[in-house]
Design goal:
- With 281 residues, this protein is mainly β.
- The protein folds into 2 domains: 199 residues, Beta Barrel (OB fold (Dihydrolipoamide Acetyltransferase, E2P)), CATH 2.40.50.140; 47 residues, Irregular (Ribosomal protein L2, domain 3).
- It is built from 1 helix and 17 strands.
- The strands form 5 sheets. Strands 9-16-10-13-14-15-17 form a 7-stranded antiparallel sheet, with no helix packed on it.
- The longest helix has 6 residues.
- The protein is globular.
- The two termini are 24 Å apart.
- The relative contact order is 0.14.
Length: 281
Amino acid sequence: MGVRKLNPVTPGQRQQVVDDFSDITKEEPEKSLTITLKRTGGRNNQGRITAPHRGGGAKRKYRIIDFKRHDKIGMKAKVLSIEYDPYRSARIALLEYEDGERRYIIAPLGLQVGDEVVAGPDAPIRVGNALPLANIPEGIKIHNIELQPGKGGQIVRAAGSSATILAKEGDYAFVKLPSGEIRKIHLSCYATIGQVSNPDHDSIVLGKAGKMRWLGRRPHTRGVAMNPVDHPLGGGEGRGKGNRPPVSRTGVLAKGGKTRNPRKPSTKFIVQPRTKKKRGR
């Protein structure tokens, strides 16, 4: 697992840093666990572009991931392979349970082929096992955390990320998330032990515009280069940026402006807001 810098024999490889895929043990996905998702090109059900600069890209199959693991409580599963997933930055692990059923989970760092994992309140504290927050000690790295009991993991699923339980009080655990936010989560919510795999993902440098096209991203046009009808920052008799803050084409604040609704019901579970990152870091 890691990255490698290419020998620059072409201009596109001059700054390119690519994944070495050394942790991948199987190339083809499990056919029964893959489906084809319809592409939108950034358009909604009325055909209007709501997510600009989307389209094209290489063909890919969606791998069905088991974020819950609730119906396999106490049943051991063996890791058959560690695989690449084109829809996420982390690796995925193919499990085979004692009853013969196979499922994908997000692969934690350190999980290897042949290891055994299990989910349930009595599961040992070992990488890849899923337990309720009530049964996980403070200070242990966790990921794939539920926000509502039984709904399945929703947060801390990106490559290299992990959260930590700081304390437990009443029916809730105080969990520090990768953003620095401290949040109250119910003790009956499940989480998986360990850090998410592929921590070197943030070191990857695409190196050329063509690689962005392979990922389904079209050329990005600056708002200030558009006409007023196309973007809030458009128009003007020169290169003036106007006297308004930078926004998206729909008027959503960019460059660090707060866009969260303060009346959002889940705000009451936030004990400490996320730390603001300094520019250049």
